[in-house]
Amino acid sequence: MFSRRAFLLSALAASTASTLARAQSAPQTGAGGAGGTSVQPTVLRIARRSIEVNGKSASVLGIRQPDGTFGIRTQVGDRFRVRVENTLEEPSLIHWHGLTPPWQQDGVPGVSGPPIPPGGSADYDFPLRFGGTFWMHSHQGLQEQLLLAAPLIIRDQRDRPDQQEVIVMLADFSFTPPDQIFAELKKGGNMAPGAMTGASPSAPAPANVKGKAAGTMAPGMAMGGASAKPDLNDVKYDAFLANDRTLGDPEVVKVEPGRRVLLRIINSSSMSAFHVDLGALDGELIAVDGFPVAPVVARRFLIAVAQRLDIRLALPRAPAAYPVLAVLEGESRQTGIILQAGGAPIARIPDNASTASPALTLDLERRLRAAEPLKPRKADRVHTLNLTGEMAGYVWSINNVAWTKDVPPLPIAKGERVELVFVNKTPMQHPMHLHGHEFQVVEIDGKRFAGAVRDTVLVPPRRRVVVAFDANNPGLWAIHCHLLYHLDAGMFTTLRYV
Ligand SMILES: [Cu+2]
To answer: Which of 59, 126, 311, 372 is deepest in the core (most CB within 10 A)?
Structure first.
């Protein structure tokens, strides 16, 4: 039943491919198994599913193998050989966040290629250059808000046989449909500066969009003075989830006292950053966004949207329950899982921490040092990306241009060392993600250093962050803010080279 549609899709992909296209690198669309290889692909099925949130049933999306496994776990050196089947009634496309495939297999509709139509499928096949904690998510419309995301774990020599791996996937959840959330953000932002959201009789407060203080509503007022507070959490969510569950009914993972645990924490939220709280346990942060860093020991670690943290724990020998919590940035709401060592009793963890957490800062980013940094080299090319926009009208842009397909890609050339200078001109933070390349954080506010290699970096209000990467994967690539509604509003651009 897929074949005709798949054929048409394939023909469309071929006809719309730009001069960059190399036919053998495009995802193969179709339903047949005639791939010319003996190894069967892993099937990942995009499908609607139900979960329970706060005692109510919620219809969401998911990406699972036929045996029910969410996402995929593979190993470095293997090829990423996957068939994605779209069982939805709408188009979809999955992005492999943090991987470096040929650009046509990157999964960004309208950039990498067309989305997979309802009932269609697409095949992917590329080598895995490195291991680590990655994830996959829809890049189509606002599907990510409906939890269309899953872990993508690539094991490598860092994975020790004496440690138990525990994946913690964080998400924000609303019973309000994403289109409506976005419409309300635009409407809410339209209110006159100085008005409190919800205080105006002509514009009643949308239930799920946060009221904005006057100082942060007015772009002019928010840019300077000491009183300007960072503007956090645009959307009021109904719940925060860890592995699809709230603390009212958390996942309990059995672990052995005295054993090592590797937490792979993935922030798959559309809009929400967290402080990971390990309670009484010291954690050793060994990788960010999959890439190794000089270990940092702490009990709290911040995680921006789309980022990942690999944290090693050495569990004490006595039986006990260890909550691994994630406290929403700037608030006390929290989610998490519980590690149950030795059958210890599990206490109910409240949905709110005892105190509100602070806003995210770059304090941790400044401390991080890549275990495998880029070779020191002068930049051949520098692009400055001013992060621009405002709450009024919920307009977000790069260099004051909200993305359309007519925006020319930033030019670079193969073999260059490229630096991207992110300058945040807004009172909101923006976690910036580059597709198809890992980058290194090399400067914060004018201070150079050999920071972490990663794929998503937080740029807080009025901060300047510079990242460097080697142009070694030619194609047309997305660069964007990973806050879903900022991305959809236009804080997105591309770069291109052959
Ligand atoms: Cu943003």
So the answer is: 311
Q: pLDDT class for 141, splitting at 50, 70, 90? A: very high
Task: Tell me the CA end-to-end span of the chain in Å, nearest whole number.
Answer: 37
- How close is the Cα of 120 to the center of ligand 1, in Å? 32
Residue 483 Cα to ligand 1 midpoint, Å, equals: 5
Query: Helix (H, G, I), strand (E, B), or coil: what is residue 144?
Result: helix
* Phi (first) and psi of residue 447, to 5 degrees: -100, 120
Q: How far is the CA of 490 from the centre of ligand 1 (A)?
A: 9
Looking at residue 24, what is its pLDDT? 40
Reduced to 3 states, what is the DSSP secondary structure of residue 399?
coil
Least confident of 11-25, 79-93, 247-261, 371-385: 11-25
Torsion angle defined by CA atoms of residues 196, 200, 204 and 210, in that order, rounded to the nearest 10 degrees: 0
**Whether the Cβ atoms of residue 368 and residue 449 lie closer than 8 Å to each other:** no
CA 171 remoteness from chain centre: 10
Interatomic CA distance for residues 124 and 133, integer angstroms: 19
- Alpha carbons 322 and 188: distance in angstroms, whole number: 40
Tokens of 438: 């890992």
Q: Which residues contact 126 (CB under 8 A, 6 or more apart)?
A: 25, 79, 80, 99, 101, 102, 105
Which residues sit with Cβ closer than 5 angstroms to ligand 1, an ion?
A: 430, 481, 483, 486, 491
The alpha carbon of 13 and the centre of ligand 1 are apart by a number of angstroms equal to 30
DSSP category for residue 146: G
Number of other residues whose CB lies within 10 A of the CB of residue 161: 4
- 318-355: per-residue pLDDT in tens? 999 999 999 999 999 999 999 999 989 999 999 999 99
Q: What percent of the chain has pLDDT over 70?
A: 84
Quote the pLDDT of residue 26: 61
Phi, psi of 144 (to 5 degrees): -60, -35
Query: Which whole-number Å values give the CA distances from 34 to 30, 85, 105, in the listed order?
Result: 9, 16, 19
In the three-class reduction of DSSP (H, G, I as helix; E, B as strand; rest coil), residue 268 is classed as: coil
Categorize the per-residue pLDDT at 38 as very low, low, confident or very high, splitting at 50, 70 and 90.
low
User: 10 alpha carbon to ligand 1 midpoint, in Å?
Assistant: 33
Of the candidates 128, 127, 124, 130, the one whose C-alpha atom is nearest the C-alpha of residue 112 is: 124
Q: How far is the CA of 368 from the centre of ligand 1 (A)?
A: 23
